[in-house]
Amino acid sequence: xxxxxxxxxxxxxxxxxxxxxDEMVSRFGISRAEAVARINExxxxxxxxxxxxxxxxxxxxxxxxxxxxxxxxxxRLPSGDEDEDEDIDFSALKVRPAPGSPAWTLRE
Length: 108
Known about the structure:
The chain has about 110 residues and is an all-alpha fold. The protein has helices at about 10-30, 30-45, 60-70, 80-85, 100-105. α1 packs across α2 and α1 (about 10-30) packs across α3 (about 60-70). The longest helix has 18 residues, at about 10-30.
């Protein structure tokens, strides 16, 4: 475990998860603490391989979108690729509740 993430990560994967958090902060305007909490909530019990883990075949923004939004009515999430995402209505995407928020605790 690291000082911020609850899963075991080597230096390469630590940098990768920090990049995911950075993407959420810059793209969605959330705090770093919320971004880290979203990552920890999703991956706390995951077995993450040393860098490059299989998840590294996608850019960090791909994972950031899935941690922040629910899929649209067609089951799609943005990928971070402008060409692939051009037909997604971002204004219609529902934001996942932040860990620790009343809406998040109700889902348990």
